[in-house]
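check this one:
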Amino acid sequence: MPLLSYFHGFRHITQNRQLLAQLTCIDLWFFNDRLDVVSMARVFYKARNLQDLKLTFCNCKPWRASTPLAVAEIPPPLSVKINTLKITVSGDNPGPKSMVYNIIQPLHNALSYLLPSQIDICLDHCPFETLYGTDGEFFPDGDSIRLDIAGPCSMINILATLLRRCVIASSVHFKAPKAFFLNPLCDRDIWPSSPSIRRVSFRNCDTITEGEVKALANRLLSCRGRVGLQFLELHHCKDISEECLLNLHDEFGDKLVWKL
């Protein structure tokens, strides 16, 4: 009998330990469902050969919790390497707030044992608090982090948090057409040096201004700053002119990469 390596399903997944141990890819979709995060976590912990995990949540609500996880059940943080972790969260107001605090944030804590090479998080019509765990810390860490945020969010605060927290990520990619880049762009105290992040990319960030791009470049690329990025990329940010980018390129050279 051939091994079962890929599972795609809605709402439910097998509880069979032997079958779970065979899976290398799990793709689960939840729509208008009631979820028990603890039970879900126990399923993932049994998938010993997992390499790719994709989770999609839309308008979900919490279900009564199972018996709390014992300390011995929970793998150590960042202890299990996988290839990809993709989480998509969407919802209609006012549901998303409840879904974030009662489902997504506890799920972040349950998945903190994973160490993905690539993390993709897509937020559609839900608050950017989805990015944070119940302890208030930013959730993802992996070699490459991609954040696709449809609604308004403070890009500066998110980026500063990533620089402070991530010890593994080497690149961070943002797609956030409604993000705001206002104060505290010039506040030196929010910009920690990162032990790992060397590339930051902004794509379709339509609200960023030329003045904010200049401030970002000075903070992230300048040898006078503490961050020390090797590359800052801007792709299809509609309010940034080529003249502005050429002037910045004169100052920072090939550290600045762009596509209009």
